[in-house]
Structures
1.
Amino acid sequence: MDWVKYIYGFIVILILQLLCCEFISVWPVLYIAVIPLIVVILPSSVSTYIVMLLGFAIGLLTDALSDGVLGLNAASCTLAGAFKNMITEPMRRYDIQSDEFNMNSGEFRSGKLVVLLALCYLLFFTAYVLIDGAGVAGWLYILLRIVLNVIVNTAIAYLLIKLWIRRFF
């Protein structure tokens, strides 16, 4: 695996996230998160522990360099990293012939990409919203916030992958 391009991707995703934290505040309920993309772009050959560690690192860097709660993005991204290989395993088993799962390959269809992104963002925002607002708001508000964030961020991540990540990786 070519680690240089993944380090570059890590840095670019971190910068994009910091720019989103600083300059994009659409609505207090909506949080634009691009850092779960680091979890998504890593190939399946990378150990779950390494994916979790990288998710924790990018989350902690985001928390430390922005004005957020320290550990909020780190915990959420770590959870998404912990379940990434569980999410991709059924996709590999039934449709993709190679053992190496690579979401950037021609074997990976757009429908599966949307499902992968939606599930990763669902894990990320379930942890994020529950840690951020548990006990403060009602369950309906928490559910609305999770669903809204998953839909919007999945669309943004899909566009980023189509426009930038697939061309680079």
2.
Amino acid sequence: MRIWILIILFSVISTSCNTKASAERKIKKTVINFLDAVEKKDGSKYKSLIYESEAYPGVISMEEKFFYKNYKIINSNVNLKENIKIKDTIFNGAKRKYVQYRIKNNNPDFFQKPLIITFIFYDQIGYDRIYNHSVFDNMLDWE
């Protein structure tokens, strides 16, 4: 009887660990695919990785152009693909996972807050799409 309990307990723990690792792998892959789309200026791929992107064409288009224009500067401050750190949060009352970058503006003429890029992921829609349609927090301060 004790052996069965231990086997069940071990299987539950291993399944839980595999699920978390799998979610993190999917999130990292999605972020890398998104950044690849920015590097290649692939608008259709960019939009396909954002959940319900067709409902927010203006915001998506504006941020897409900003990202294309400033990607090299942003990536030179923080290697985006190498610094993917996944964290947990509560967003709109539900548990979510997110990846966030804070990029300082090195231009001495500007005394601005850092540019904040946030990718939010929600397990209900899958970790293969970014849940938030607006990934920049203070993009207009950087223009």
3.
Amino acid sequence: MMKLITPLIHVAFLIPLTGIAVGVEAFLRSAAVLGEYKGVIDLPLFIMFLSSIIIFGIPLFWLANLLMQRFEKPHGPTVYDHFRQSLFFYLIVIYSSATWIARGFGNTEEDGYLLLWIGISLVGIVVNYKFLSVRRKVNVT
């Protein structure tokens, strides 16, 4: 039963990380580090989102993996556990890519959020894979 809940726990961390990234953006705009919002994604905004996703996302998703481990108590994690736990992040990447293939990247606020969620999803996927691979090495020896 818990194996059905842990992907939901994992994807739930998308919401606070989105809030953190947008909060960092708002703070940097109020401090005049970033320019006025023009509704487009430019390089400083991209770098700011990427750095905030990496700086805050890695520890946050490591915490999510510790929480999921506590619920599941896996004996020997497999690659299937990774795909199951990160299922929703893979779906976000597929949905965003399909959206852009179908209608193109419009450089709008909606596309900005899709790009942000792809970045968060990729960090979540990589951290989950790394967490499970470290855990598998510890269990084998």
